[in-house]
TrEMBL record:
Protein name: Methyltransferase FkbM domain-containing protein
Domain of life: Eukaryota
Matching InterPro entries: FkbM_mtfrase, SAM-dependent_MTases_sf
NCBIfam families on file: fkbM_fam
Amino acid sequence: MLKLNVILEKNHAVHNTETTYFDSYIDLGCTDYPDTQNKTGLEDVKPLPLVYQNNYFIDKSSGGKVHAKKLYRPSTRNDLNFTPAEKSRIHSCINNFKSDWKKGQSDFWDGDEQYIRRTHHKYLIPGDNVMIEVGGNVGEDAQYYLDTYKPKHYIMLEPLKLLYRKLQQRFKNYTNAITYNVGLGKRNEKFMIKMEGNIGDASSPFFGSGEGTCSLKVINAIDFFSALGVGNFMVDLITINCEGCEYDLLETILSTDLVYHFKHIQFGTHPTLKNLADPVRRYCQIQERLSRTHKLTYQYKFTWETWKLKDI
């Protein structure tokens, strides 16, 4: 994968206050201008719905009352090693991948079964829930969630600029919806990728199709959630469908005590993407780590599933 600044250097991009010039190698519809491509994307993230003052935050979200608390800072967990029993289950999970993945795919994509990812979440209280969607895509899932569960705050992340702009237009009249033009992972990175699927809705840096003309930014997940204020409030549902980023994202969440602030974690899994490192083993390890803090509410193995925080 070719990094964004390399592409821009190759194309000798020139930017001034009136006009930006690129040659045909850069697709203006899906890349950043030079004056924004050096930003991480974290600069635009605002706390929700909190106002920070020194080392405290003020919650003004309920009836005008003001509550001061210490600002939450995620801590690295010290229980990341696997027990012998967990190692044994990981080994079995890896060995059963082919049959489990085939069954998961067959069952999930059978008729309308796939829509369980939308209809499953009847526990959400309309008007009083916080949702985060990683991989907003064209907004089909978001449309259902917004209209059905009426979240108080709905955060969408979509790193591909073409799709991000479509999401902004589609949900411009939803005052409870906020869209960020970034993806989430273990570190801040910038890539140039090829458009895949219909209008780019299957694009991913993990496809292995080579460098392309569309820019994609990924930022450290812990930095994003901290900037948003997660930890000072609970996220009722995070739903993740990001063409391979789920591995880095879930591993990052599970490495800190931030995991205790997600009541429900739903994700789609993409274990066959060419550029993913050891996806089957990582999925099986994620299963074991998630089971320490959460319990399954539905699962199509290696395909789609939701986990609920224990003791809620």
